[in-house]
Design goal:
17% strand, 207 residues, Ribosomal_bL28_sf, three-stranded mixed sheet, Ribosomal_bL28, 7 helices, elongated, Ribosomal_bL28/bL31-like_sf
Length: 207
């Protein structure tokens, strides 16, 4: 099963929405996607990076007889992490697309760097338009920088919070499981030293 670029364009615009597209993206899509382009149907559900089903001949060694055959791309289902979305994306990709993603530095960078005419699947075009829109909104946000004194205060506050949390956990364990009946090593030494001091004072007084 295959679908043409015109149907692909309609589905992408329906999913993303023309208002959510960055300026000039729709015109670029119309130029890069020919209306007569045919893509295999299973590529609709993944990122194939230009790898689709291929057809050829199987030639016998004895008589050179030819019979038609096809080569399907090696498709894997992977979980790819997106920094802009802050979550993993489960998507079907080809091994060639995985190498391209690793070379680009991640799924976000691959979608941003790859031209629209090479994203020849509906899912790839949808994610590329969505990631571009999110990065455009991120670029409009204001960035606030803290002074070194404020950063030192924040760091000290986090350290104090961790110490309080540890003390609370220790107290909770003590109440939950009860105190230990055995005296600590430091307490034993303190009592022994106290007894020796008392004995020394008694001997000095008697003498």
């Amino acid at each position: 099963m295959a679908f043409r670029g015109r149907e692909m364009m309609k589905k992408v615009l329906k999913k993303v929405g023309e208002d959510n597209l960055a300026p000039g993206v729709k015109e670029s899509l119309e130029k890069c996607i020919p209306k007569s382009k045919i893509v295999m149907g299973r590529a609709n559900r993944g990122i194939f990076a230009g790898r689709h089903i291929r057809f050829g001949n199987r030639v016998s060694e004895d008589g050179g007889n030819k019979s038609r055959r096809s080569w399907k791309p090696n498709v894997q289902e992977k979980r790819l992490f997106s920094y802009i979305l802050d979550r993993h994306i489960r998507v079907k990709v080809t091994t060639h697309a995985l190498r391209c993603i690793d070379k680009a530095g991640g799924i976000d960078e691959y979608l941003l760097k790859t031209p629209y005419h090479k994203m020849d699947t509906e899912l790839g075009l949808y994610w590329k338009a969505k990631i571009e829109k999110l990065y455009e909104e991120l670029g409009k946000m204001e960035v606030v920088f803290f002074s070194p004194e404020d950063e030192a205060k924040f760091e000290q506050g986090f350290k104090d919070l961790k110490l309080e949390e540890r003390a609370t956990r220790r107290e909770f364990r003590r109440q939950m499981y009860g105190g230990s009946s055995k005296p600590k090593l430091g307490e034993d030494r303190t009592e022994d030293n106290h007894e020796e001091d008392v004995h020394t004072h008694q001997v000095a007084a008697n003498s």
